[in-house]
Specification:
There is one protein chain. The chain has about 280 residues and is mainly β. The protein has one domain: Beta Barrel (YmcC-like fold), CATH 2.40.360. It starts with 7 loop residues before the first helix and ends in a 15-residue tail after the last strand. It is built from 1 helix and 16 strands.
Length: about 280
């Protein structure tokens, strides 16, 4: 499968994403295209054994580790990623992701790394999530589920989207293939009618700039969901960094760009749902 040609609006968005932020002085608009790819990025992927749709998987807990060392998103405990999220209406939110030192043994027997994802608007918590990830012996990073809540006026308004692999028919999926190749398709999560997200590798030699810097050899994926077929999101992962930019191209100009990467305190992200600490 040949690499897809990205819409011009996506390239323009990636070019300027976060460039007005004062977080770091490095976020200047480059004169070269924000997305580039080498000829190798257009090669077809081999036949994949990655799960798709509702395909069952037989996973051996002994084949998994909580040490996430994937080159496109190493989740070293204590690492904190801070993003500036701008929705289609221009409203700004702050997203903080912390790879905690905590782990959780799931219903399917696999022990996963706990990664805290919090969203705030004007300092007020609007969403809080505990994500569970594990890496298999081949190097694939699996998404095992999440405990999530949306908040209004300081109270839980919804728990929609929560699921745990092995509970109620929920199946784990792939967050990142061990060796991403253009054309790979895989499910990211599956719980019928609740969580049916999919991923596809579009490029492996991309150039992207966000407020934290300019990154080459980035991984580009296309994320979709069977529950909302019109929703499409492109994500870019920088080597040794993780996700640096997400762009929603399904009708708006929403984007989420990395503005800070630093070390969190040992207690950060370890509080109960709704009280991430801090």
């Amino acid at each position: 499968m040949k690499q897809r040609t990205l819409p011009l609006i996506l390239a323009a968005t990636i070019l300027c994403a976060g460039c007005t932020s004062a977080t770091t002085p490095s976020a200047t608009s480059p004169s070269t295209p924000a997305l580039e790819s080498s000829p190798a990025a257009t090669t077809s992927a081999p036949e994949s054994t990655l799960p798709i749709g509702s395909e069952p998987v037989n996973l051996n807990p002994a084949d998994f580790t909580t040490d996430i060392t994937h080159p496109y998103w190493p989740m070293k405990p204590g690492t904190r990623w801070t993003y500036r999220d701008v929705d289609e209406k221009g409203e700004v939110q702050t997203v903080v992701v912390v790879a905690t030192a905590e782990t959780k043994k799931l219903a399917n027997g696999i022990t996963a790394r706990v990664v805290r994802d919090t969203v705030r608007s004007d300092g007020e918590l609007v969403e809080d999530t505990l994500d569970w990830y594990a890496q298999d012996s081949a190097g694939n990073v699996w998404y095992m589920g999440e405990d999530t809540a949306e908040f209004e006026n300081g109270k839980i308004a919804s728990r929609e989207g929560s699921f745990e692999a092995g509970v109620g028919g929920a199946l784990p999926g792939i967050l990142l293939p061990a060796e991403p190749q253009v054309g790979q398709k895989y499910r990211q999560e599956y719980l019928k009618g609740e969580a049916e997200d999919n991923g596809e590798v579009l490029g492996i030699n991309q150039l992207v700039e966000v407020p934290t810097g300019r990154y080459s050899d980035a991984l580009l994926t296309r994320d979709t969901t069977n529950l909302e077929p019109d929703v499409v999101e492109y994500k870019l992962y920088a080597p040794d960094i993780g996700p640096v930019l997400a762009v929603d191209i399904s009708g708006g100009a929403a984007r989420e760009a990395l503005v800070k990467l630093d070390k969190a305190a040992s207690q950060d992200g370890t509080g109960p749902l709704g009280a991430p600490n801090p």
